[in-house]
Amino acid sequence: MITCVVEYVIDPAKIESFERFGRRWMELVDRHGGTHHGYYLPAEGASDKALALFTFPSLAAYEQYRSLFGRHPDFIDADRIRDDSGCVLRYERTFMRPLLPGSGQPTATP
User: Fold this and answer.
1) Domains of the chain
2) pLDDT above 70: percentage of residues in the chain
3) pTM
4) 81 against 44, higher pLDDT
5) Which of 79, 83, 91, 97 has the fewest C-beta atoms under 10 angstroms from its C-beta?
């Protein structure tokens, strides 16, 4: 399992557009083999930070999903929300592996 964490710098004046963008991407991730864990929007503190987390069963499954970017009409339309509104100023994608409750203890290394 691989989890993608996307850290966004957003335009706080365009939060409604960012929410529309986020709802669209949640649908696409879930429809194309992933599980979206939601977008986390500013509530208190910095008003220009947002996060998204979604999981795919493997990096290969994620890469298959990524192959649709710029080609599949639904993906192009979702990106158009971001591009036309200017709601995202920049973003950074990081891949992480989860440590979940009940996953056991790590093995000792010599």
Assistant:
1) 2-96 (3.30.70.100)
2) 94
3) 0.85
4) 81
5) 97
Task: Tokens 């850290």: give the residue.
Answer: 7
Rounded to a whole number of angstroms, the distance between the first and last alpha carbons of the chain is 26
Token duo for residue 52? 């998204």
Judge contact between 76 and 86, C-beta under 8 A: no
Angle among Cα 41, 44, 50 to the nearest 5 degrees reads 25
CB distance 2 to 56 below 8 Å: yes
Give the count of alpha carbons within 13 A of 67, CB side only. 8
Q: How long a stretch of residues is the chain?
A: 110
Token reading at 107:
């093995």
